[in-house]
Specification:
41% of the residues lie in helices and 18% in strands. With 333 residues, it is of the alpha/beta class. The chain folds into 2 domains: 142 residues, 3-Layer(aba) Sandwich (Rossmann fold); 147 residues, Response regulator (Rossmann fold, 3-Layer(aba) Sandwich), CATH 3.40.50.2300. The protein has a 7-stranded mixed sheet, sandwiched between helices. It has a 5-stranded parallel sheet with strand order 2-1-3-4-5, with helices on both faces. The protein is elongated. It starts with 5 loop residues before the first helix and ends with a strand.
Length: 333
């Protein structure tokens, strides 16, 4: 063996064999993971940008540095139509990511139809069990888990609070993207409360700015009305338009999150829309480290916040009841 005795050669060979698993582990640990993220709202929207930053910051805090050991690719919907969701789902899965983070039921439904293997962490979905995305909240059982926004029955609370501020309301229009899977469930929940209050519920499907500019004035032609805006990327993208048209038409309104009264709406009651992205990062971290979505329970919100815009109330000629102001987490003067 050209100067190397057999025993020495075997020693070298054995050492190389022992070192190989360690080298393989190091190489595996340094493999750059790919995470695809679908965020509701356009890339120019401040709320959408904040969700993106929150997720990236949370991942960095967990040791995942974008460009070093992970590649985070974010997509922002332009219209959030069925076709757009279908195309995005196909693109995401074709890129063979290690995990996908989604926002809302429409895109989650599209992904669910495309893959049963890629780990998916959802945010802002109302009822993943009824929609067939998971087997149960405690044991999702497949490749999907995540964080819910609230139960359908929660939508009835919006009407109760709107009626508390404006007792004379006898009509309410419910604005929502008609492609949203939970559309009818929301309407049923609001209708169940409305029937005991003597309030007529009108479904107002909106999917574009033009829809909003047509639907709200048409509803306002008859007095004593109010608006409930259900969560959707359409609502988020056009929240300032909705608030301004509602104010011009004298319609009190209630929304899911503080971003709406911050944009001129009357009030909101619901969750902080940013926090689920911090939570999603924790689940993605656990998945990348070997845990299965099937074993990670779907989590529900633990805190809801009430935000009231007093400026908008004054512009509408309303006086917010002191009892409601006392319960508010934030009052916009």
């Amino acid at each position: 063996m050209a100067g190397i005795r057999r025993r020495e050669f075997m020693t070298l060979l054995g050492g190389a064999a022992a070192a190989w698993p360690m080298a393989a582990r190091v190489q595996q640990a340094e493999r750059v993971r790919r995470v695809m993220v679908w965020i509701g709202g356009s890339s120019n929207d401040t709320s959408s940008q904040q969700r993106d930053v929150t997720f990236r910051d949370a991942m960095r805090g967990l040791g995942w540095i974008d460009g070093r050991n992970i590649k985070i690719e974010v997509r922002f919907p332009t219209t959030n139509t069925v076709d757009e969701n279908r195309a995005a789902a196909a693109e995401f899965v074709a890129l063979n990511p290690d995990a996908i983070v989604t926002t809302g039921a429409p895109i989650l439904g599209a992904l669910h139809r495309v893959t049963k293997t890629v780990p998916i962490v959802f945010t802002l979905v109302t009822d993943p069990v009824s929609d067939g995305f998971v087997a149960s909240l405690a044991r999702p059982g497949g490749n999907i888990t995540g964080f819910t926004i609230f139960e359908h029955a929660f939508a009835g609370k919006w009407l109760e609070m709107l009626k508390e501020v404006v007792p004379g309301i006898i009509r309410v229009a419910v604005l929502q993207n008609p492609d949203h899977p939970a559309w009818n469930s929301y309407l049923r929940a609001i209708g169940a409360v409305a029937s005991g209050m003597g309030v007529e519920v009108t479904a107002a499907p909106v999917n574009t700015a033009a829809d909003i500019q047509a639907a709200i004035p048409a509803f306002a032609l008859v007095p004593n009305g109010g608006l409930i805006l259900l969560p959707s990327p359409v609502a988020t993208a056009h929240r300032e338009l909705i608030a301004s048209v509602a104010l011009r038409r004298g319609l009190p309104s209630i929304y899911l999150s503080r971003i709406y009264p911050m944009s001129g709406g009357l009030m909101s009651y619901g969750i902080n829309l940013i926090e689920p992205y911090r939570q999603a990062a924790v689940y993605v971290d656990r998945i990348l480290r070997g845990e299965k979505p099937a074993d990670l329970p779907v989590q529900a919100p633990t805190k809801y916040e009430l935000v009231v815009n007093v400026r908008t109330a004054k512009a509408l000629g309303l006086e917010i009841p002191p009892s409601l102001l006392a319960r508010a987490d934030e009052v916009i003067e």
